[in-house]
Specification:
The chain is mainly α. The protein has a domain of 82 residues: Orthogonal Bundle (Protocatechuate 4,5-dioxygenase, Chain A). The chain has 8 helices and no strands. The longest helix is centred in the last third of the chain and has 11 residues. The chain is globular.
């Protein structure tokens, strides 16, 4: 399967929301097609309900890499964030049953502490 280059996250919009996701500038990030497809499909309320009830069975329908599947089953925001659109990511966690406040807290936990990485004035 061919992957497309991903556009950078809209860091200004995330910053306005108080969210900073550290990503190495020299690493080309790629979106995961099957992950994004799953997230898109879960916008249908019936599919979202089925996913909450039978998560593993639904995941079998998608050609997900084992590490992506494991991140989904573990609700690992940090592993999934670089692989998909931030809006689909937020929607996915809501559809999967995570409270929005919990999702935002997990995103904020990814941000470096204020002043981190600064040295020597």
């Amino acid at each position: 399967m061919l992957a497309r280059k991903e556009r950078p996250l809209n860091r200004e919009a995330l910053a306005r929301a108080g969210i900073s996701i550290p990503i190495k500038a020299d690493v080309a990030r790629m979106r995961d097609y099957w992950l994004s497809k799953l997230f898109f499909d879960l916008q249908d309320p019936g599919r979202a309900a089925e996913y909450r009830a039978r998560r593993e069975a639904v995941l079998e329908r998608y050609g997900l890499k084992p590490e992506v599947r494991a991140a989904l089953l573990a609700d690992d925001v940090s592993a999934l964030a670089p692989l998909t659109n931030p809006y689909l990511l937020r929607f996915y966690f809501a559809a999967a049953g995570m409270r929005d406040a919990d999702f935002i807290a997990r995103l904020r936990a990814l941000a470096p502490a204020p002043g981190a990485g600064k040295c020597c004035g």
